[in-house]
Every structure is written in structure tokens, then in C-alpha cells.
Design goal:
The complex is a heterodimer of chains A (406) and B (279). Chain A is of the alpha/beta class and 406 residues long. Chain A is built from 16 helices and 14 strands. Chain A has 2 domains: 19-58 and 99-213, Rossmann fold; 67-97 and 218-401, Rossmann fold, CATH 3.40.50. In chain A, helix 2 crosses helix 4 and helix 5 (126-137) packs parallel to helix 7. Chain A starts with 18 loop residues before the first strand and ends in a 5-residue tail after the last helix. Chain B has 279 residues and is an alpha/beta fold. Chain B has a single domain (3-278), classed as Aldolase class I (TIM Barrel, Alpha-Beta Barrel). Helix content of chain B is 48%, strand content 13%. Chain B contains 13 helices and 9 strands. Chain B has helices at 3-14, 31-44, 63-74, 79-90, 104-110, 112-121, 141-147, 164-169, 191-202, 218-225, 235-244, 255-271, 273-278; strands spanning 19-25, 48-52, 98-102, 126-129, 150-151, 154-155, 175-178, 209-212, 230-233. A 9-stranded parallel beta sheet of chain B has the order 5-4-3-2-1-9-8-7-6. In chain B, helix 7 links the parallel strand 4 (126-129) and strand 5 (150-151). The longest helix of chain B has 17 residues, at 255-271. The chains are: A alpha/beta (406), B alpha/beta (279). Chains A and B meet through strand 2, helix 1, helix 8, strand 11 and strand 12 of A and helix 3, helix 5 and strand 6 of B.
Chain lengths: 406, 279
């Protein structure tokens, strides 16, 4: 199964069937097939349409606030005593995370297709908030499916979505987390195929979603490249990003995949440790399988039943991963490592104190890996980490874990 | 390849009636009870059995079938045991076609070749795998056909005239027309619309067309059966099983007889279909 031949370019996927090596594809019910073929056709037209590109760039600049800064974290660099650490500050985007990059792109596509109703799934609520935001901006009704467990632990985001006019439907089926929310969103889509656009939040699902979401998020990597050349006159030595479904990571990584000098590290949620069941490290501890429209690494038992997983971070609490990451792992281009809950929690606190930035728990995982790696590198080496979300939504979770009453 | 299907449809045609296809979840609520249910189906009037393979994430199914799958998994059901149900069933019934229905991942993890070999040995006639559209035929459909196991495809209201030939291309046994966009167990579709859709599919294939999704009563079965070669009933049977269980999900003395009585009623509806249509 790890026989993926090395390609001439790591940036040429997917093929016309939506595959990255053996990963990806279109594993959906027949009811949805005509829809995803229609979406693919529309996306093919839109991506070469200058008017589409111009409208998206205009919104990115004036609505989201792009480009996001590339920030040299001087105090953290000093503290770690090794490589220079830069943050790509996508947490400064409107709505507080990278999710808006994808939502704006997809809602423009939905509009082109004449769809009048938006649905989405959400875990931490960041994608739900970003979807509710663009739905409000474009005047479309929006339903967000969210696992009942997540509704509870991410209540500030639930309230934000409601303020933005979205209907939040808690999902109690299964264990009430992101995978169950995605099942329920797919059921809604199957039932309301005529008017509904399913705005998937990560670079996973049936083709063309993994490619499309990656392309919308690649603005992160393209900006980073330009900013790094302007600031340092060279490419970074290492990129680090957190992977749940993997959209912020693929957005940063993709424009650098063919630069052999750039080492690339994806950080998974190691939860309470890989020995037990309570983690979401599908790449490090899972195996290839088929779920939610694509073949990819999954947490599953020996009978092919999907496991639930666990992470301190609701945004990483998903038993799968985008198919391009699975391919990049097998091809050996990207290294994927787990970070435990407690390491992420320590990183969260360190960044808050040293740089005055409260990160979300998702990029806190990436940060914990940076904390391990930077001290082992030379002082003239450069790490860029994607600071993909801000931590306001997590202060209650963190407070509870630290034993504080808020 | 599909000798049992051919005999079954020919027999029903000779009796001037559509076939009744019944869906049960393998292992719901436990192996032995579900084997007893399966064995009781043919004499209650079921012509074809769809044997559900439980999956943790049944994306195209409603809450009833999802819960049935969860009960089966909690009871220790595995793909191996679902194959075993068919093996046991075949000891006493060699006529009734058995179709395994579910999602791809458990089969993929079991191993496609190993699965097909064991399915053939267990007397399985066909497969319905919800998340394998024609675009994915290399995965399981073509290897199954090569082994002599039918691959039954779902056609839906979103399958338009352009797409229909592709959907029908490697379909064998029969065509399963999903009469509505949605999940299993939703509301009954308009019989007249269903009739039109069946006629449209029949322009493209000589295979029998069975209709499912939303059929709950003998009256529904009669109405849908007036225009289709077969009527598929699933959720209502699953609900009958669920309603017979104890609070902690154990089978009772009413579980098997309850399903038998229900299927007998549905069968009567199906048998009245063409008579009613001829009136």
C-alpha cells in the first residue's frame, strides 16, 4: 500500500478522477453524483475566469483583510534559542481563522450555480462561523450541522452563528462530533439536491472538494512565499502546520511542495497518547479506508468501522484527513507527527505570555512541534508556522483544564 | 450469473405480480435472532432478501437503519458474521436471492478478493454498495461481475437521461430505483411520478426495476407495485424489529413473529398490485 511512485511534481494532483495516487476519488451515493459532477464542471470554469478571480481577490483584500502578516516572533525565537520563528497570521483574518478563505471562494461558486441555500458541517465552530458569515454577506439562508458534544464545548461560536442568522442543528447521532455532523450534512444534501450548496470546510470529501478547498487556501502559501522573499530574500527551511482535515496545512504547504530545500511538517492531534483510543492521529496511527466520499487514512477497527477519536481541540477531532495529505505522507514529501493534548496546552500558554498572542488550540499543536524543533536548528535557519486561528473560542476549555473558574 | 434473480422475476411475472424485496440489518439485534428473521422471510412472502452490512457511518440512511446498525455492531456483528448469516440461510433455502447491502469501507478493509470469494461461497447473489457510483467501478463492481456476483445499482431522481446509460452499464440482477432524493425511511413518493420514472429507466434496460425508499404499508406496496417489477421495503421492517425489543435492546418472543406478520401483510399488498392496476 505504500508503493506510491515519486512524481515529477508534487503539485500536479489530483488526476481527472480526483485521485492523489490511491487516495481521493468520488465515493458517494448516486443521488449526489450528478451534483458533484456539476460542481466540478462549474469549478473548472470558475478557476480560469478572470471575473471570478477578481471578485475573490477583492473580497480577500477588503472583507477578510488579506494579505495576512508574516510576523517574526522575536521573543519566542529568543526563548527557544534556535531557528528564527515566523508566524503566518491567518488568525487575524475576519472571523478569526483561515476558514474564511475557503468560504468566500465557495459561496461565489454557489452563487454562480444559482444555489439558494447553504449547508455546512462544523467541529470547533470556526468553519460554521465563517460559513454563517459569508451566508449573511450574500443574503443566503444557512444551516450548520454541529455535533451535540461540540455545541456544548464551543458555545461562544454557536452563539456567533446564531447572531449571524444561521440555524445551528445539533447532531446527536453517533457520538455527536465532527464526523457525525458531516454525515448529517450529507443527508441534508441528498434530500435537498435542487437548491442546496454543501460548503465543506476542509480539504476532504469527494472530488472536487479536496482540490478546490486547497486552491482557495493556497493563498496562505503564496503570500508566505512572497513575504518571505521580501523579508529574508530566501525560502524558509521548514513549514509547520496543524492538520485536522488539513485545509490550513495544505494551503500553506502546496506552493512549496516542489521546493526540495523546504522541510514540511504536519502536526496531528495526539490526544491523550497514541497507545490508547483517545487521539485523532489518522496519519500516524490509522490506515487507508473509505469515508465521506474519499479514500484516505482513517482511524478504524479491523472490521472497517470508523472510530471516534479524541482531541482537546474540537477542530482536530476528526477520524480522517484530506486525501492529498495521505498521498504526501506515503510519497514521503511531508512528515506527519502527533502532539499530545498537554503539549498543545503548554504551547498555548507560552505563546500567550511571550508574544501576547492567544492562539487557538488547533495551531497550538503546530506550535508545540515548533517548540521541539526550533532549539535543534541553527540560528540562521527559518521556520514558518501557520497561526491559523485565534484562541478566543478556547478560553473556556483552557480555563477548565487549568482548573480555573471563569 | 444471476440465475436466482431470473427465476424469481420470471415466477412473479408468471403470477402477474411484482416481487417483494425485504431489507433486514444483519445481526440486529443479535446474530441468532437475525438468522431466524432471515429464515422466516421467504415463507412470509419475501421474494428477495437484502441483507444489510452494518456500518458506523451510514451516510445515505435515516435514523432507523443507523440505529439498527449500531445495535448490530454493539451485538458484535462483523462482515464475517454477516457472510455467516447467508451461509446458514443457504443450508435450508437455495432459491431466494440474497443481496448484501451496505457501504464500501468494511469490504475494502476485509479485502475485495477475499470478500468476493467468501460471498460466493456463502451463496450471495448480488451486492448493493451505496457509496460506489459507476465512476468507482474498478473497486468492486467489475471484480464482482468477473466472479459471477451481480452488482445492483441505485438509480435516483437526480439520475438524468444523460447519466442513466452510465449507471446501467455494469448493472445486473435488477435496477434499484430510489424513488426520492433523500435518506432511507423518508416519506412515500407520489406513485404516478414513480411510474413515469420506472418507464424512463425501462427505455434504457431490459433488467427488472424495483422501487424503494418510502414504502411503509401494504397499500404503499400495492400502489408502487402497480408500475414496478418489484417493491423494496426496509425501514418499516427495521422499525418492527426495534419496537419488539426490550428497553436494553434484547430480542423478545415477539421479534420474529412481528416481522413475519408485517411481511405477510406487505406481500398481500404486492400480490394485489397488478389486479388493482388492471381494474
Amino acid at each position: 500500500m505504500n508503493q506510491t511512485p515519486l512524481p515529477n511534481s508534487f503539485r500536479s494532483g489530483p488526476d481527472e478522477d480526483g485521485r492523489f495516487g490511491i487516495f481521493g476519488g468520488r465515493f458517494v451515493a448516486e443521488t449526489l453524483m450528478p451534483l458533484i459532477l456539476e460542481l466540478e464542471a462549474e469549478w473548472e470554469k470558475a478557476k480560469t475566469d478572470p471575473a471570478f478571480k477578481a471578485e475573490l481577490e477583492h473580497l480577500n483584500t477588503h472583507y477578510t483583510g488579506r494579505p495576512s502578516p508574516l510576523y517574526f516572533a522575536e521573543r519566542l525565537t529568543e526563548e527557544l534559542g534556535g531557528a528564527k520563528v515566523y508566524f503566518k497570521r491567518d488568525e487575524l483574518n475576519h472571523t478569526g481563522s483561515h476558514k474564511i478563505n475557503n468560504c468566500l471562494g465557495q459561496i461565489l461558486l454557489a452563487k454562480r450555480m444559482g444555489k439558494t441555500r447553504i449547508i455546512a458541517e462544523t467541529g470547533a465552530g470556526q468553519h460554521g462561523v465563517a460559513t454563517a458569515t459569508v451566508a449573511a454577506r450574500f443574503g443566503l439562508p444557512c444551516v450548520v450541522y454541529m455535533g451535540a458534544t461540540d455545541v456544548e464545548r464551543q458555545s461562544p461560536n454557536v452563539f456567533r452563528m446564531k447572531l449571524l442568522g444561521a440555524e445551528v442543528r445539533p447532531v446527536t447521532a453517533g457520538h455527536g462530533t465532527l464526523k457525525d455532523a458531516m454525515n448529517e450534512a450529507l443527508r441534508d444534501w441528498v434530500t435537498n439536491v435542487d437548491d442546496t450548496y454543501y460548503l465543506i470546510g476542509t480539504a476532504a470529501g469527494p472530488h472536487p472538494y479536496p482540490e478546490m478547498v486547497r486552491d482557495f487556501q493556497s493563498v496562505i502559501g503564496r503570500e508566505t512565499r512572497e513575504q518571505m522573499m521580501a523579508m529574508e530574500g530566501r525560502l524558509p527551511d521548514m513549514l509547520v502546520a496543524a492538520v485536522g482535515g488539513g485545509s490550513n496545512a495544505i494551503g500553506l504547504f502546496h506552493p512549496f511542495l516542489d521546493d526540495a530545500s523546504v522541510k514540511i511538517v504536519g502536526v496531528e492531534a495526539g490526544g491523550k497518547g497514541l497507545d490508547g483510543e483517545e487521539h485523532c492521529a489518522s496519519l500516524t496511527a490509522g490506515s487507508p479506508g473509505v469515508l465521506h466520499g474519499n479514500r484516505t487514512y482513517l482511524l478504524q477497527d479491523k472490521d472497517g468501522q470508523i472510530k471516534e477519536g479524541h482531541s482537546i481541540s474540537a477542530g482536530l477531532d476528526y477520524p480522517g484527513i484530506g486525501p492529498e495529505h495521505s498521498w504526501l505522507k506515503d510519497a514521503g514529501r511531508v512528515e506527519y507527527v502527533p502532539i499530545m493534548d498537554h503539549e498543545a496546552l503548554e504551547a498555548f500558554q507560552l505563546l500567550t505570555r511571550v508574544e501576547g498572542i492567544i492562539p487557538a488550540l488547533e495551531p497550538s499543536h503546530a506550535l508545540a512541534e515548533v517548540i521541539k524543533r526550533a532549539p535543534t536548528m541553527d540560528k540562521d535557519q527559518i521556520i514558518v508556522m501557520n497561526l491559523c486561528g485565534r484562541g478566543d473560542k478556547d478560553i473556556f476549555t483552557v480555563g477548565k483544564l487549568l482548573g480555573l473558574e471563569l | 450469473m444471476s440465475a436466482r434473480f431470473d427465476r424469481t422475476f420470471a415466477k412473479a411475472a408468471a403470477e402477474r405480480r411484482p416481487v417483494l424485496v425485504t431489507y433486514i440489518m444483519g445481526g440486529d439485534p443479535d446474530f441468532d435472532t437475525s438468522l431466524s428473521i432471515m429464515k422466516a422471510l421467504p415463507s412470509a412472502g419475501s421474494d428477495i432478501i437484502e441483507l444489510g452490512m452494518p456500518f458506523s457511518d451510514p451516510m445515505a440512511d435515516g435514523p432507523a437503519i443507523q440505529l439498527a446498525g449500531q445495535r448490530a455492531l454493539a451485538g458484535g456483528q462483523t462482515l464475517e458474521k454477516t457472510l455467516e448469516l447467508s451461509r446458514q440461510f443457504r443450508k435450508t433455502d437455495t432459491d431466494t436471492p440474497v443481496v448484501m447491502m451496505g457501504y464500501y469501507n468494511p469490504i475494502y478493509i476485509y479485502g475485495v478478493d477475499r470478500f468476493l470469494e467468501n460471498a460466493l461461497a456463502a451463496g450471495i447473489d448480488g451486492l448493493i454498495v451505496v457509496d460506489l457510483p459507476p465512476e468507482m467501478d474498478d473497486e468492486l463492481c467489475l471484480p464482482a461481475l468477473a466472479k459471477g456476483i451481480s452488482f445492483i445499482r441505485l438509480a435516483t431522481p437526480t439520475t438524468d437521461g444523460r447519466r442513466l446509460p452510465k449507471v446501467l452499464e455494469n448493472t445486473s440482477g435488477f435496477v434499484y430505483y430510489v424513488s426520492m432524493n433523500g435518506i432511507t425511511g423518508s416519506a412515500l413518493p407520489e406513485p404516478a411520478l414513480v411510474g413515469g420514472a420506472v418507464a424512463r429507466i425501462k427505455e434504457h434496460t431490459s433488467l427488472p426495476v424495483c422501487v424503494g425508499f418510502g414504502v411503509k404499508t401494504a397499500e404503499h406496496a400495492r400502489a408502487i407495485g402497480a408500475s414496478a417489477d418489484g417493491v423494496v421495503v426496509g425501514t418499516v421492517i427495521i422499525n418492527q424489529v426495534a419496537s419488539s425489543l426490550t428497553e436494553d435492546g434484547q430480542a423478545t418472543g415477539a421479534t420474529v413473529p412481528g416481522v413475519e406478520a408485517l411481511v405477510r401483510g406487505l406481500s398481500a399488498g404486492v400480490r394485489a398490485a397488478r389486479l388493482a392496476a388492471a381494474e
